[in-house]
Automatic annotation (TrEMBL):
Protein name: Helix-turn-helix domain-containing protein
Domain Transposase IS30-like HTH positions: 6-47
Source organism (scientific name): Candidatus Eisenbergiella merdipullorum
InterPro entries listed in its UniProt record: Homeodomain-like_sf, IS30-like_HTH
SUPFAM superfamilies per the UniProt record, alphabetical: Homeodomain-like
Ranges annotated as spanning the membrane: none
Amino acid sequence: MLIVKQTILSEADKAAVETMYLSGMSMSDIARIYGCHYTTIGRILRRRNVPIR
């Protein structure tokens, strides 16, 4: 059985994700920092209405 760890980011973390992405970091690089999948970062950005590049 595979156990999957769920990464829950605080509002401060989500704001930092947005700032990092807008400053030019890739979703993959940000995901590596927070220990989550890049799709999690993409979901956060979409919910915050950040244009995806």
